[in-house]
Design goal:
alpha/beta; Undecaprenyl pyrophosphate synthetase; 6 strands
């Protein structure tokens, strides 16, 4: 079945966020070490990025490494950081050919120097690309992001750059890592888990949640199309009732 042709391009989510889960379990299922799953997950990143860009999605945010992931075995963390360097450098040509801009959110200062350098180089070399923005959430935690926003706003108030009465949702959103981006309308999580796991907690207030049992290394364009079609078959009311939406 050609799912792509069934998608209504006029009702595309402009921002899709994905929790890429199941690399380790997929590797275990194949009798391989966890790192094997992470390496194969790169193919899924490429597939989904190309698929989203081809449809016309404007922002794709991938949860690549959370602050909690540092507690994983040291060998796995080291391998993940090395994989980040290799992937960014290898995929830079593809990003350029497809006019895709690379960005990152999270506490990048805690990344190993080599990983951070490769990431920042990729961001710099693609900063003028306009077709789609690929956002990597690295050393990211939504609670950390919210706390940072609160601290930044408090500093502005303390320095009398901002009046307390002027603080509203827009001021707060401008203090987040995702300032300037639309909120995700669709959040996908792979591997059958049904948690948010500290990801974009402010931004997904009205996102449609889509959970699939597919492990991330097996996730392909067709699975992305399925998620988007599922999204398009839902009624987004934003607190209103159906009759109000239909008017």
């Amino acid at each position: 079945m050609d799912l792509k042709s069934e998608i209504d391009l006029d009702k595309l989510p402009q921002h899709i966020a994905i929790i890429m889960d199941g690399n380790g379990r997929w590797a275990k299922k194949h009798g391989k070490p966890r790192v094997f799953g992470h390496r194969n997950g790169v193919t899924s990143v490429r597939e989904v990025t190309e698929g989203a860009a081809e449809l016309g999605v404007k922002y794709l945010t991938l949860y690549a490494f959370s602050t909690e992931n540092w507690s994983r075995p040291a060998l796995e963390v080291t391998a993940l950081m090395a994989l980040l360097v290799d992937t960014v450098r290898k995929e830079l040509k593809t990003l350029t050919e497809n006019n895709i801009r690379l960005q990152a959110i999270g506490d990048l200062s805690k990344l190993p120097d080599r990983s951070r350098k490769a990431l920042l180089e990729g961001i710099e070399k693609t900063k003028h690309h306009t077709r789609m923005t690929l956002v990597l959430a690295l050393n990211y935690s939504a609670r950390w992001e919210i706390m940072q926003a609160v601290k930044n706003i408090a500093t502005q108030v303390e320095q009398k750059e901002l009046n307390t009465n002027a603080i509203d949702e827009q001021v707060f959103e401008n203090a987040l890592s995702t300032a300037g981006m639309p909120d995700p309308e669709l959040l996908i999580r792979t591997s059958g888990e049904t948690r948010i796991s500290n990801f974009l907690l402010w931004q997904i207030a009205y996102a449609e949640l889509y959970f699939t049992p597919i492990f991330w290394p097996e996730f392909r364009k067709q699975h992305l199309y399925e998620a988007i079609l599922n999204y398009q078959n839902r009624e987004r009311r934003f607190g209103k009732i159906s009759e109000q939406i239909e008017k």
